[in-house]
Amino acid sequence: MWKTVLKRVLMMIPQMFLLSVIVFLLAKAMPGDPFSGLIAPGTDPAQIERLRELAGLNDPWWQQYLRWMGNALHGDFGVSFVLKQPVSRVMGDRIGNTLWLSLMTTIILYIVGIWMGMVAARNEGKWQDKLLLIYNSITYGIPAYIIYLFAIFIFGYTLRWFPTGGTVDVDASGFFGILLSKIHHMILPAVTMALLGTVTIFTYIRTGILDEQVQDYVRTARAKGVSENVIFRKHILRNALLPIAANLGFTITGLLSGAIFAETIFGYPGIGQLFTSSIVQRDYPMLTTLILFSGILALIGSLLSDIIMAWVDPRIRID
Amino acid sequence: SSSSSSDKGTDKKDSKDEKVGDFNVSYANPDKAIEGGDLTYGYIAETPFIGQWLSPLSTDAIDSKVQSPAFAPVFAIDSSFTIQNGKDKGGLADIEFDKDKKTALVTLHDGVKWSDGQAITARDLYYPYEIIANDKAKSTRWTDSLANIEGLEDYHNNKTDKISGLTFPDGEDGKKLLIQFKENKPGFTQSGNGYFLETIAPYHYLKDVPFEKLVSDEKTTTKPLVAGPFKPVKIVPGESIRYEVNENYSGPKPKLKSVTVKTVTPAKAVAALKAQEFDILDGTTNDLYPEVKKLTSKGYEILGQQDLYVSLLYYNVGHYDKEKSVNVSDRETPVQDPKVRQALSYALNTDQINETLNNGLNTRAIGTIPPVFKDYASKGDGFPLDLDKANKLLDEAGWKLDKDAKGKDGKTNDASDKGYRVKDGKTLSLTFMARSGQATSEPIAQSYINQWKQIGVDVSLYNNKLTDFNSWGDIVQSSGKTKENQSWDITQGAWSLSSEPSQQDLFSASAPFNFGHFTSDELTKDLNDIDSEKAMDPEYRKKAFQKYQDYLQETAFVTPLSFKIVWTPVNKRVQNFTLDYGENELWAKLAVTSDKPSDK
Amino acid sequence: MNNEKILDAKNVGVQFLIGDEYLTAIEDVSLTVHKNEVVALVGESGSGKSTFATALMGLHNPHQSKVTGSAVADGTELIGLSEKNYEKIRGKKIGMVFQDPLASLNPLMRINDQIKEAMSVHDVIPANEQDARVIQLLTEVGINNPERIAKLYPHELSGGMRQRVVIALAIANEPDLIIADEPTTALDVTIQAQILDLIKDIQRKKEAGVILITHDLGVVAETADTVAVMYGGQIVELAPVVELFNNPKHPYTRSLLRANPSLDTDSDELYVIKGKIPSLKDMDRNRDLFIDRVDWMDTEKYSKTKPELHEVAPNHFVRGESWKDFYFPEDQDNSNESENV
Amino acid sequence: MSGQVTPSFGGALKREFSKDKVAMISLILLIVILLGIFIGGTFFVKRPDYMIVNLLERYKLPFTDGHIFGTDGSGHDVFKMLLIGGRNSLFIAFAVTLITNFIGISIGIICGYYGGRIDNIIMRIVDFLTILPQLMIIIVLTTIVPNYNAMTLVLIISAFGWIGTVRPIRARVLTEANRDYVKASKTSGSSNFAIMFREILPNIISLIIAGLTLDLAGNIGLETGLTFLGFGLPVGTPSLGTMLNQATNPETMTGKPWVWIPSAIFILIIVILIIFVAQAVRRAGDQRQSQ
Amino acid sequence: MSELLRIENLKIHYPIRSGFFNKVTDHVYAVDNVNFSIEEGQTYGLVGESGSGKTTIGKAIVGLEPITDGKIIYKGEDVSSPATRKKMEYNRDVQMIFQDSQSSLNPRKTIYEIISEPIRNFDNLDEAATKKRVAELLDIVGLPQRTMYQYPFQFSGGQRQRIGIARAISTNPKLIVADEPVSALDLSVQAQVLNFMKKIQKELGISFLFISHDLGVVRHMTENIAIMHNGRFAEIGPRDEIFNNPQHIYTKRLLAAIPSMDVNKREENTANRKKVEAEFQSSKSEWYEPSGRLLPNLMEVSPSHWAALPEANSKGEKA
Ligand SMILES: Nc1ncnc2c1ncn2[C@@H]1O[C@H](COP(=O)(O)OP(=O)(O)OP(=O)(O)O)[C@@H](O)[C@H]1O
Ligand SMILES: Nc1ncnc2c1ncn2[C@@H]1O[C@H](COP(=O)(O)OP(=O)(O)OP(=O)(O)O)[C@@H](O)[C@H]1O
Ligand SMILES: [Mg+2]
Ligand SMILES: [Mg+2]
């Protein structure tokens, strides 16, 4: 098992390499560079040109790439052109936020999605089922950010249940104070994101349950005298959960891209928001690292999916 | 002979009652201030703040706003940005110029200290020059203006490691820094002139940090030393800062106990204000105004002030030659003709746009110098909407209306049944590189195109779309005759101006930011005159500005579009708040008159 | 054979809700199973064998079916028993073995957990003895190395082993009655033989009653004590095994025996039963259902009265009267017409 | 259950729709709306209607001066904008859905049918493409494409959109390809192409329909996200995204809801209608199979 | 009678892949070194337990399975390459009937489309002629012509199997491989289909390779029988020889396992079966290689009767 994981990790290296080249070239293909936004009478284009030269932006792309890659291999992802901070530090600040938010969203998403799928499957064809199907299709069809805005207005400002931006209150103190404040800040974006993202899990669970409950082993369990509730929990649900378990890795990486919108609107400084601003400001070091990072996350996500799958489904054992 | 900075600064009494447009500049709160109190200051921003506290390295406008409670100006200024000497004025130092020796002597006031209790020294005045000029620190703030200080350019080019023009008359730990200039400049007495720096940096605290690490060191990012009335006690990166009183501040004792500064995105700003989340909300945009105005009965007062801002239309008449660092007006284009440019200018409905899209917060610019510079500001009427005049100008220029003329899109004029204008068989077709970025960007661009069509000019958008800021920056700044920079005829620009009104940086023959590349001997002469030694006489300078202004009106080498009013909602419990540029000790003076924000 | 009745089913009927009407799937099925007796239920697909078994297990969805009649096991009336009480019967009093051993096992649970689950729901075997009991059971069903096998997952076992596990599940609580619904159809002949031997062994050892559902006449001939032949949701013939094979009465039974390409007969052409069982909707049980498929005989004759089971010889029951007149035309006139639909 | 009904897809469809009144009404409404949008958008909205800014007409309330839905911040009639924007967005949604599904289904079928090495290679490529930062690539492409319009947007988005379709199709085809009718076709001398697209394709139609409808529903709001990030359609192409995006301005969201609510409701209605119709279509598709 | 098809040293090995790199770690020897030939107009039975490689041989003969090694010679040409088969229009002559009638008929196609598929591909008939031919074929298999435009699900299992037969005989093939054509059918229907196949085989002079694990059926249908186990032949010979004079222990075991219809001798049968089983277990090592596969060489018992006897293999080793 561990050997396989290691092998998979090794396999990731060429992929990451290819990804990094693509990402780098893309960043270069975008019009302008981080310095072209510095247009103010107080700045001197000659000085900007000088800095551009110093930053090596006038070198051929592959030289820039090799330099960047070489540094990256040493854990040095460069300094953000815009934020003037080492990329690794900015990421360090932001990743934590995003990961916590994603984690919370995932948990809520799974609870709600599974619950919806169960309700729909148990009431197949009835109004509950139809309603949930419509709900899930609509949340899939309607751009989420409009709803995010509404959520902020209603729960943030009108009802004032939740803070409307940031990750933590400046006044929060003490371990629990800060923790509570962080959670308080996360609830609104997490719940909204989760409620709008249930469609995949809902569909998996619903069809999963419908498929599993007619399986022969369920009949066997009944014949053993196992009660319906136990059958549902221990047999049907567990088996119906398999595909979602396999999907967990992807869900997390999917959330990261969803975070681009949510974080921007909720004013939650995570890497999603960083991504948007880095694009707008052509902050290459930031952007390339971010994308590389999300690429790695995606790869880890798929590896994780496989491991989870192998772990929960004895029929698939990676070895 | 030495002359101290002008003392004629505007009277405080006057500025208190001053009005800009319909707004008061200051808010007079008649109630009695309470002891201490917490104040929340919001700043509207799309992005989190960066958090660079070392001002030679900081370029972020958000940073300077969210750090303002911890900031004390090196030199006090009056409402017209003229430097004011005297400890009572609120600065950390005085500056004396010696015209004959071409020097300036900066003298720190007694007892000025960093927030760690260490005295601010001459070395701390010198240190920012090193940082800005040293390549390793990668500051973007180096400009040619600084080369006017003896030896600084050599230092910048790594020829020396001492700046010969900066000396310490009473030693590094003393209070004085002597600056040796190559030339005297009329702008010396204006703050923001760029010929010398107006910042300090805590050398004793940072001396062990190498230049290349300065930008990212925690001593400049999360654990800074400050000299202002408040010091940061807790920083949530990018989001908020909590300030408490800086006991080592040398000015008047701050009235508030603490200040919290937070950023808020534009989409949420109004709602936050409705929820009384902020006492002061800065960084407002015009589109928020109608909603915020409704809050004047819900606890807020809106103050306003002229902004250091002007927006323009550029006409592309040439290119920038990078080798020679000079603009060349050599492009073959209808907009070479001043009549065409004037006609295009008179066709604009700027007043209407400002009234509607900008909610009356922008005013049509009658020149390029905004009204804050009371003495130098443009006079006259600029280019008000006058379609008849525009049509006449085009007729004179030889462009005749033709009903059947086809535009670039192969279609006839759908906005005016008179058709497009034609000369020598060619339609007057122009490309407009309009910038994206604001909610109003698109209607404004379309509105302009619409107006131009009314006078028979076929204008289409560059690449059929609005151009984002970075792409725009790339195109307008490219030098030489590249295909890209030759493919547009008209573009928009907007400047946040320095508090020194010189126009050299914007329009001189050598200015890289002269995006239209318009040059003429007359313009060069006018611009030089404004910054000549003679112009150290304010009266002379006033006339020089007027002459430049007349030339602009005649040639329309650019079309001034708008000036702007900055407006700030302030909760009615706040005392002593003002937008007066001459207030140097705002944060120390701020107080509140109740525990909770008012909602009436 | 012992005469103690383990199951006494009388007039069991099942109706399914199809569309918006209830259609009768089985009707008037009466069957007695004694201790130590193997009763085989044969008949072609759709004749209602599984429906009957499922009815005994109370596994029909109450919202979509109606079960009538009476079935008494161990003094308890099964029909109409509440779900709660049924849970105490299933797996404890009656064990069931299904056809497809892979599908019958939960793919995500280890063998021992699945067997233990069967024990835990009824507290017959104390928790601390269950592990030992699992090993004992696996040994009983002839699995070598039970300690290892117990820790495996179903997909890691061969078909024969899986079927043994399923049997182990069914007998975990030593039920009085074992219902095996086509337990060997998915298996090879060699393994089939082993499994059948196993079922017989266990049945003998535990003195349980067995209902063996199959459509393989060979299996019946080798295993059963009593045979019930089902057709169209009814038992058409019921007799001790020797009697049935040596002296079949009902036309369907006789046709079936003839259609079998057995090793012993050497005819070139097999006997063909024309047509197929009518769909539930078209089934008219007031007439002889099978005789419609015998076109050389006058069907109207047997449609007048509802066919009932008659005892034609001791313990030999046959439904209706048509058997009395039934003959195979080949035997009569040796005509060799091939039969098509 | 076998019946006497004709099993043609058309017949099954008819039956499903006549049985399911909601689906029937949805279908009629959908057709009416689509026709209305396409005819209205093409013939009744002229270029000046959405190109020319009329500042005096800004933010007119609904039902004033002949604007039933009022006007927006540029003085455009919201109803006309809805017609033309709806047409453009629906065009984009349909085009993207068709292109991505065409590519995705083709590749999915090829992978699932051939299996083995071909499958392995293509799937590794697909794996890699899934980790590519699609949003960024789309954004980069929209900034560097010289003539950016609805068609280029469709192509750019389609360039990646197909990836998600491949997997489910492939999985189904893998099982389908193992069924004996495929072997029978092979021994009947049919070419691989014929087997893939004439034999297997009709058998995965319900899966395809399910995917198509979900995609269509998702793609209607597709360009809104890009608009939000500032990379939406160019000026000359009004869309539901640009209309909806006005809601990001708090003043408009709360103070001038008529500007954006019609587009939001429009999307909502279309999505719901598509779902109701799709369910019936899918049932019809499923019905022809088996038993 | 002349030889129609000959199989020489046929080997079909499936790689077992494992690990992430899908490396081939082992092989399934599905068919291992099998020789036999099929004569014109004769029927052959292939019997063996599940997984013994019967289907694999069948599929290899019709060209559905690429072969690992060996030759399949038809009309003097090795038809193991798809190109040769295509050139010869091999499948016009060699057809297959599948076990699962449900899955072998495309549920989305009409009977006409299904039966006409080989005709369209091999015979250049126009629409009308094709229709005529399909009608003829339906007639042959005893289905009314009106069924032409119906779909597979509207038929019973037996009828469906006959449709499959109609398709297989549509191009007048010389050889039909029938892979367990009746094992999914009820006894009553099975008789129908078997009779029918026999009739066609006689009338059209087609050779049959009849694959089944039901010895009763095989005995009824075929003249020659091959007994297979784990990819190799245990015994091959005329039907009566195999049944009356089995040589191989595995054949004996198989025969003993068949439940007898003779109720009067059931104790006897069971005893016999247990005896054979015990004998099999005890002498297994003589008859099988240590790997569990049969001994590779067949020994001539009579000119048409061969069996993998231990003596043959000990001799073989010496030779
Ligand atoms: N849950 C159900 N709903 C509706 N009809 C059913 C249901 N279960 C069985 N039937 C019908 O009842 C009849 C008897 O079916 P049953 O499964 O008992 O037959 P069987 O003898 O077990 O057949 P097989 O040999 O195929 O298993 C059939 O016509 C079948 O279609
Ligand atoms: N595509 C394949 N890949 C790997 N192994 C295979 C494949 N197809 C068949 N096998 C293996 O080859 C062996 C022979 O299979 P085959 O299907 O020929 O057996 P069979 O005798 O037809 O069995 P059955 O009676 O179950 O149909 C089996 O062990 C099977 O698992
Ligand atoms: Mg059954
Ligand atoms: Mg097989």
UniProtKB/TrEMBL annotation, chain A:
BP GO terms, sorted: transmembrane transport
PROSITE patterns the record matches: ABC_TM1
Pfam families: BPD_transp_1, BPD_transp_1_N
Keyword Nucleus: no
Coiled-coil ranges (or none): none
Domain ABC transmembrane type-1: 95-305
Name this polypeptide is given: Peptide ABC transporter permease
Cellular component terms per the entry's GO annotation: plasma membrane
Membrane topology: Multi-pass membrane protein
Transmembrane stretches, start-end: 99-121, 142-163, 183-205, 241-266, 286-312
PANTHER family: INNER MEMBRANE ABC TRANSPORTER (PTHR30465), OLIGOPEPTIDE TRANSPORT SYSTEM PERMEASE PROTEIN APPB (PTHR30465:SF0)
InterPro entries, alphabetized: BPD_transp_1_N, MetI-like, MetI-like_sf
Compartment list: Cell membrane
UniProt keywords, alphabetically: Cell membrane, Membrane, Transmembrane, Transmembrane helix, Transport
Recorded family membership: Belongs to the binding-protein-dependent transport system permease family.
Automatic annotation (TrEMBL), chain C:
Protein's cellular compartments: Cell membrane
Topology class, membrane: Peripheral membrane protein
ABC transporter domain mapped to chain residues: 7-257
NCBIfam families reported for this sequence: oligo_HPY
A Pfam match: oligo_HPY
Keyword Cell membrane (UniProt): yes
Family matches, as PROSITE patterns: ABC_TRANSPORTER_1, ABC_TRANSPORTER_2
Family, per entry: Belongs to the ABC transporter superfamily.
Top-rank lineage group of the source organism: Bacteria
Gene3D superfamilies noted in UniProt: P-loop containing nucleotide triphosphate hydrolases
PANTHER family assigned: ATPASE AAA-TYPE CORE DOMAIN-CONTAINING PROTEIN (PTHR43297:SF14), OLIGOPEPTIDE TRANSPORT ATP-BINDING PROTEIN APPD (PTHR43297)
Matching InterPro entries: AAA+_ATPase, ABC_Ni/Peptide_Import, ABC_transporter-like_ATP-bd, ABC_transporter-like_CS, Oligopep_ABC_C, P-loop_NTPase
CDD domains in the record: ABC_NikE_OppD_transporters (cd03257)
Entry's Gene Ontology cellular component terms: plasma membrane
GO biological process entries: peptide transport
Organism ancestry: Bacteria, Bacillati, Bacillota, Bacilli, Lactobacillales
Keywords: ATP-binding, Cell inner membrane, Cell membrane, Membrane, Nucleotide-binding, Translocase, Transport
Organism annotation: Floricoccus tropicus
GO molecular function: ATP binding; ATP hydrolysis activity
UniProt name for this protein: Dipeptide/oligopeptide/nickel ABC transporter ATP-binding protein
TrEMBL record, chain D:
Entry keywords, A to Z: Cell membrane, Membrane, Transmembrane, Transmembrane helix, Transport
UniProt key word Nucleus: no
SUPFAM superfamilies: MetI-like (SSF161098)
Any one Gene Ontology BP term: transmembrane transport
Residue ranges of every copy of the ABC transmembrane type-1 domain listed in the record: 86-278
Alphabetical list of Pfam families matching this protein: BPD_transp_1 (PF00528)
Record flagged with keyword Cell membrane: yes
Residue stretches spanning the membrane: 22-45, 90-113, 125-144, 150-169, 200-222, 258-281
Topology within the bilayer: Multi-pass membrane protein
CDD domains, per the entry: TM_PBP2
One GO cellular component, as annotated: plasma membrane
Cellular compartments annotated: Cell membrane
PANTHER family associated with the record: D,D-DIPEPTIDE TRANSPORT SYSTEM PERMEASE PROTEIN DDPC-RELATED (PTHR43386:SF1), OLIGOPEPTIDE TRANSPORT SYSTEM PERMEASE PROTEIN APPC (PTHR43386)
Similarity field: Belongs to the binding-protein-dependent transport system permease family.
Protein name (Swiss-Prot/TrEMBL): Peptide ABC transporter permease
Source organism: Floricoccus tropicus
Automatic annotation (TrEMBL), chain E:
Pfam families in UniProt: ABC_tran, oligo_HPY
Family matches, as SUPFAM superfamilies: P-loop containing nucleoside triphosphate hydrolases
CDD domains: ABC_NikE_OppD_transporters (cd03257)
InterPro entries in alphabetical order: AAA+_ATPase, ABC_transp_ATP-bind, ABC_transporter-like_ATP-bd, ABC_transporter-like_CS, Oligopep_ABC_C, P-loop_NTPase
GO molecular function: ATP binding; ATP hydrolysis activity
UniProt keyword terms in alphabetical order: ATP-binding, Nucleotide-binding, Peptide transport, Protein transport, Transport
Segments forming domain ABC transporter: 5-255
Gene3D superfamilies (UniProt xref): P-loop containing nucleotide triphosphate hydrolases
Family that this chain belongs to: Belongs to the ABC transporter superfamily.
PANTHER family listed in its UniProt record: ABC TRANSPORTER, ATP-BINDING PROTEIN, TRANSPORT ATP-BINDING PROTEIN
Protein name (Swiss-Prot/TrEMBL): Peptide ABC transporter substrate-binding protein
